[in-house]
Specification:
Length: 536
C-alpha cells in the first residue's frame, strides 16, 4: 500500500525537483482543467436541457441506451487506447526535432482505424435490434420504447467513427504538448447537443443530431493545430510503432470488453428497476464525474507525457512526480466529495428541477448521487495510479485488476438488486472502485520498490480532516438557511448552493492554513513558475 514513514514535505521543497519540469505539467493541467470546466459546465447545461425537455422519463432512457452504443464502442476501440498506448508511443516520435516519423505513424494509425471503424459501424447497423435487446431496451414496461431505442441507435452509431478519429488526433496533440484545442473538444460535443436539442425541443432525435454534428466538429477543429502534419493514406500493420501500440493495448482490450459487458448489464439491470432508472443514473453520473474530469483527468493526462519520459531512465523522478500528482488529487477531491455529498439535493434541484423534472425526481437523483460518491475519492486516486502504470508501459496488470474489479461489481449488484433496487448499482460501483484502488496501490508500491517518504498518507489525513470541516460548514449553513428560504424555488436553490458552498469553501480554506496543507498552498506558486517549463 501507499504509505509514508519519513515524509518529504512541500515545506522543504514547494515544487519538487521532478516538478520543475512538472510545473509545465501543472500549466498543462490548467489548460486541460479550463477545457474540462467549459466541457463539464456545458455537460451540466446539456443534462439540464434534457431534464427540462424530457424529465427522468422512459423516452430519455431509450435515448441513453441508444447513445451507449457509439460511446461504448469508442471506449473499446480507441478511447482506451489514447492514454495507454497512443500517447506513450506518439511521445517517442514527438520528442524528435524531425516530425516525419510521427506523421507517418499517425497516418498509419488513422488508416487502420478508418477501415476497422467502418466495418464496426456496418455490423452494428445490421444487428441493431439484437444489440438494443441485450442492453435492456426489451425490459421497458412500455413496448414502444424498444422501437424508439432501435431507431435512435441506428441513427447514433456512426458517431463512433467521428469520435474515434478525433481521439487519435487528440493523442497526437497530447504527445506534441499542444493541449489547448483538444482540451476543449469535449465542450464542442456538449455544446452541439445543447444547440441541437433547443432547436428541436419536441424531438428526442435532436439529441442524436447533436452527437453526430459535435463529434464531426471535433475532427475539424483538431486539424487546425495539426496543420503542419503531413498525413496520407498509409496502411502498414507491420511497422514497429503499430506493433508497439497493439502490444500495449492488447492487455487492455480484455479488460475493456469486460467493462463494456458490465456496463451493458448495468443498463439491463437498471431497466428492470423501472423505465426511468437509466435517466436517474445518467443525471447523477454527470455530477459525479464533474470533479473527476475537472481535477483528476486533467492532471493525469497532463502528467502522463512527463511520467512516460521519466519511466525510461529516472525512476526516482518518476516516483516524485507520481506522488506529487497523488497528493494534489487527494487535496482537491476529498473536499469536493464532501461538498457534493452535503449539497446533493439543492444542486440537483438547481440544475435539473424544471419543466418535466419534478421534485420527486430531484430526491431520487440526489440519493443516487450520494451513494455514487462513496467511491469518488478511490476512483480519483485509482486513475492516477493507472496512468502511472501506463507511463511505464505496463498495461497488463491494470487490465487484470480491472477484470477482478468488474467481477466484484457484477456480483455485488446481482446480490443487492432485490433488497436495494436501483441503489444496488451505486453500491456496487463504489465497491468496484475501492477494490481496484487497493490492488493498484499494492502493485504500484511493490513495482516501484516502495512509495514511502513522499507524504502521501499525511496529505490524505490532512485532506480528509479538511473535507469533514468543509462538509460540516456547508451543512451548518444549509440548516441556517432552510427556515429563511421559500422552498422549491429557483432563487432558494441558488442561494442555498451559493451560500452553503461558500461556507464550505471558507471552512476548507481555514483548514488549509490550520493544517498547513502545502499542496493547496503551493498551487498558485506552481502556476507562476512560467520560466521553468512551457506548454505549446
Amino acid at each position: 500500500m501507499l504509505d509514508n514513514t519519513t515524509d518529504v514535505t512541500p515545506e522543504e521543497n514547494p515544487i519538487p525537483d521532478s516538478l520543475k519540469e512538472d510545473t509545465g505539467v501543472v500549466k498543462a493541467a490548467a489548460i486541460l482543467a479550463a477545457g474540462n470546466i467549459v466541457s463539464r459546465i456545458l455537460g451540466l447545461v446539456r443534462e439540464t436541457v434534457k431534464a427540462s425537455l424530457f424529465g427522468a422519463s422512459g423516452l430519455l432512457a431509450a435515448y441513453e441506451i441508444a447513445a451507449y452504443i457509439p460511446i461504448s464502442l469508442f471506449d473499446l476501440l480507441i478511447g482506451g487506447m489514447v492514454n495507454s498506448a497512443l500517447v506513450p508511443v506518439f511521445s517517442d516520435y514527438a520528442s524528435k526535432k524531425d516530425k516525419t516519423e510521427l506523421w507517418a505513424v499517425l497516418s498509419m494509425v488513422l488508416s487502420a482505424a478508418t477501415l476497422l471503424l467502418a466495418l464496426v459501424v456496418i455490423i452494428v447497423e445490421l444487428l441493431t435490434p439484437q444489440v438494443a435487446h441485450i442492453i435492456g431496451a426489451g425490459n421497458f414496461e412500455d413496448p414502444a420504447l424498444y422501437d424508439v431505442s432501435v431507431r435512435l441507435m441506428r441513427f447514433a452509431t456512426p458517431a463512433v467513427f467521428f469520435m474515434s478519429i478525433a481521439s487519435i488526433l487528440t493523442g497526437a496533440l497530447y504527445a506534441l504538448k499542444r493541449f489547448t484545442v483538444p482540451a476543449f473538444i469535449g465542450a464542442v460535443l456538449n455544446g452541439a447537443i445543447v444547440v441541437a436539442a433547443l432547436l428541436k425541443p419536441d424531438q428526442i432525435q435532436s439529441l442524436v443530431w447533436g452527437l453526430l454534428i459535435g463529434s464531426f466538429l471535433q475532427i475539424l477543429l483538431q486539424l487546425i493545430p495539426l496543420r503542419d502534419a503531413r498525413l496520407r493514406w498509409h496502411l502498414n500493420l507491420r511497422h514497429p510503432a503499430i506493433r508497439r501500440i497493439l502490444k500495449l493495448y492488447a492487455p487492455i482490450v480484455a479488460g475493456l470488453i469486460i467493462t463494456q459487458i458490465s456496463i451493458a448489464l448495468s443498463y439491463n439491470l437498471a431497466t428492470r428497476t423501472g423505465d426511468d432508472s437509466v435517466a436517474f443514473m445518467r443525471f447523477a453520473t454527470t455530477l459525479y464525474q464533474f470533479p473527476l474530469g475537472l481535477v483528476v483527468t486533467a492532471l493525469s493526462v497532463a502528467i502522463l507525457p512527463t511520467l512516460s519520459r521519466q519511466a525510461i531512465d529516472n525512476i526516482p523522478a518518476f516516483k516524485q512526480t507520481l506522488s506529487t500528482g497523488l497528493r494534489l488529487v487527494l487535496t482537491l477531491i476529498l473536499p469536493a466529495t464532501a461538498g457534493l455529498l452535503v449539497l446533493a439535493v439543492p444542486i440537483v434541484a438547481l440544475l435539473f428541477e424544471r419543466g418535466e423534472f419534478t421534485p420527486e425526481d430531484t430526491q431520487i437523483t440526489a440519493q443516487v448521487l450520494r451513494v455514487y460518491l462513496i467511491g469518488l475519492p478511490f476512483a480519483a486516486v485509482d486513475q492516477m495510479l493507472v496512468f502511472g502504470s501506463f507511463a511505464r508501459k505496463d498495461t497488463l496488470r491494470p487490465s487484470l485488476v480491472g477484470v477482478v474489479a468488474i467481477l466484484v461489481y457484477l456480483a455485488t449488484a446481482v446480490l443487492l438488486i432485490k433488497p436495494l433496487g436501483l441503489y444496488s448499482l451505486m453500491v456496487a460501483d463504489a465497491v468496484k472502485h475501492i477494490v481496484h484502488t487497493v490492488i493498484m496501490a499494492v502493485i504500484t508500491h511493490r513495482s516501484l520498490d516502495g512509495m514511502r517518504g513522499y507524504g502521501i498518507t499525511k496529505a490524505a489525513v490532512k485532506s480528509f480532516i479538511a473535507a469533514i470541516v468543509t462538509g460540516l460548514a456547508a451543512f451548518g449553513m444549509m440548516e441556517l438557511l432552510l427556515p429563511l428560504l421559500t422552498p422549491d424555488t429557483f432563487l432558494s436553490h441558488t442561494l442555498m448552493v451559493v451560500l452553503a458552498g461558500m461556507a464550505g469553501l471558507a471552512g476548507y480554506t481555514m483548514m488549509v492554513f490550520v493544517l498547513d496543507i502545502t499542496e493547496a498552498k503551493s498551487l498558485p506558486a506552481m502556476f507562476r513558475k512560467r520560466n521553468q517549463a512551457s506548454v505549446e
